[in-house]
Write a structure and sequence with these properties.
Blueprint lengths: L2 H12 L6 H8 L7 H8 L6 H11 L17 H4 L3
Helix pairs in contact: 2-4
Length: 84
């Protein structure tokens, strides 16, 4: 499965439940890979970036268990993304 396919499978699962507050929480946690505008575009499905979507889900929906087959080749971990 390509990274783009993984993104869309994962996005379809969480698009209606992923809170917008996940963007603010990720930005406040020193996530410097993306701007808030880029993260908004990922949350809306306008920009395809699987690692950023995974980061948003881990912050916004911590109880959601991401299927292993939908994870990116390089999985962002909480330690590399932010300090909780």
């Amino acid at each position: 499965m390509t990274e783009k396919q993984k993104f869309y499978h994962l996005y379809a699962e969480v698009c209606e439940t992923l809170p917008t507050s996940a963007i603010d929480a990720l930005i406040r946690s020193d996530f410097s890979e993306a701007s808030s505008v880029q993260l908004v575009q990922v949350r809306q499905g306008r920009q395809i970036n699987l690692p950023w979507l995974v980061a948003l889900i881990r912050v916004g929906l911590p109880q959601y268990e991401i299927p292993a087959e939908w994870l990116p080749a390089v999985v962002p971990t909480p330690q590399t993304l932010f300090t909780v």
